[in-house]
Amino acid sequence: MSSEVYKLIKKEVQFTFRPFVILFMLGATCFIQIFKFSMNLGGAIVIPLLWCWLFTFSGTVKGYGSKTLGVFVAPITRGEYVSAKYLFSILCTSIVFCISMVMDIFMIYIRDSMLKVQVFMNYNLEGMLIAYPVALFIIALVQAWSLYQGTCGKVDYGVTITVPILVSIIFMNIQSYIFDNPPLNFFKRADISQKPQLYFIVVLVSITAAAGVLYYSYINCKKDFQRIDL
Amino acid sequence: MSMLLEVSNLNKKFEGFSLNDVSFSLEGGYIMGFIGENGAGKTTTLRAILNIIVKDSGSIKVFGLDHIQNEKQIKDRVGFISDEKIFYEDITVKAMKNIIAPFYSRWDDQLFNDYVERFGLPLNKKIKTLSQGTYKKFALAVALSHKPELLILDEPTANLDPVFRTEFLDVLHDFVADEQHAVLFSSHITSDLDKIADYVTLIHKGSLLFSQSKEDLFDECILIKGGVELAQDFRNKGLLGVQSNSYGSSGLCRSKKLAEQFQSQGCIVEHPTIEDIMVYTVREGRK
Fold it and tell me: Model pTM?
């Protein structure tokens, strides 16, 4: 990584992790965790949570799209700029992903302890193990969109909001269809012990697809960035 | 003196607008005024030099280096002020400085602080709260603090009060004094260029009308004013941008001999300002 890319990422971190952004994220997290806890929902609900966080980030990225000039007149090439933006985006997602997972496990553990039930391993963690790879794929899609609009400004908020929600719903329904059978059972928990091969297929396909989407969007954004005028 | 900037046959096409074979050059020690109407292509040209806009064809050399192959090296040695607000507005002046400074190899914090003091910049104020004039001062401080050799300024004096404008022009004078530095300065306030420009380049509808020294330009151009009845005569004899109203007619003449003829016919002969030259030449170009 060149020092310019590092400096750019540092700049993005400085700009993004400001008090109101952190407060918004904490607020959103608390709200969803309380909602989850009170509704006795499993790990699958993590997808809207991640989406909520990502929306904040993608909004920030979009904001950058129109305000890049101040930095871009500095000694930076287009390639460095887009690489930094991309790496920063992935860094944020990774942070969000890890925090969400830890919080989920923590909240579920508390709930199960309070309810004095031993369902932790049987239900929720398994549900989460499916939800997270699927979420990763959805995040990759959101990432691609946010980056694309951040650099090119061709996709508006409407698409950014609608598509991840639709994709979330579709994936969650596929998940519940595969593992619980009743289709459209949005919050039904999965029991992967019944179909471990399917679980691994879902995980493998999701992670491969996520990697593919991320790579493809990176290549395309880079190409676009070479063409566009800031 | 070395050639700091060479633009040759620069072309860039947008929908409804194109830059056509724009060519000019700038040596060290000089200030070039870059003038033209709104939408003439000034900003496009300046941004193409910094590769902020991708050119379609042509060659741009800054410090003798190709502007794309040596983009970082060139940007490190160029100070730029945009006509737009290009800094993040939700952070303070100091925070923005801290973001920008590390990118430049020759950034001088002491120099920046000197400009902060000299321009009265509020370091802890958010950029969005700055007045337009103060914003421009901040942009100038940033542009100068990394010790550039070439300044590219897009409408830098717009929104500045007359006192600071004068100070600003002094800063530019000092900047080019050692003959190693140069300034490319686009402006609508042509009175500023009257004061400081060594060269004037006029662009109209994406094409270059002229690029020459101010001295030669003032030597060549003469403003002729006469009665209403002379308007057609002015046009027939090739005066530029002839205009006529109930008070009389006028046109820009680029021949001393012709000017003397008109003077002998009782016309008023005046030395034009850069604004006059721009107005009459552009008017001619619209025909």
Answer: 0.75
